[in-house]
Amino acid sequence: MCIKNQGGLIRASASVIKVCEEAERCFQRMHAVVGDQLPKAQNLLLAICTVVLTEVGATIFEDLNEHMFDSTPDNNHVFTLVKCVAFCYSTIRVHHMAKHNSVPPRGKIITNKIISV
Asked: At CB < 8 A and 24+ separation, what contacts does 39-45 make?
């Protein structure tokens, strides 16, 4: 599928998409537990980043495998990259959840059905 590029948009790599999908799975599991309520856990975003890193950490960014072993475990760029992507996605997702829960419904949802007379 070829989508028109509007002024130099960058397409995400398969690894970035995998990280975002795993973060979304975390949100879906959390939604199954708390329902439509906002989560009230401390360090929620960091916990999600840790879960995402645990689930997909070794299977993504294959291009950086050699570089990963050149650095020390506490200064691993691959792990930092996974945490950064998961944190950014989670931040956007939490803001969306908060906005969705704080905005009251605006009335009936109108569908685009054609009614025969």
From this structure: 44/90, 44/94, 45/87, 45/90, 45/91, 45/94
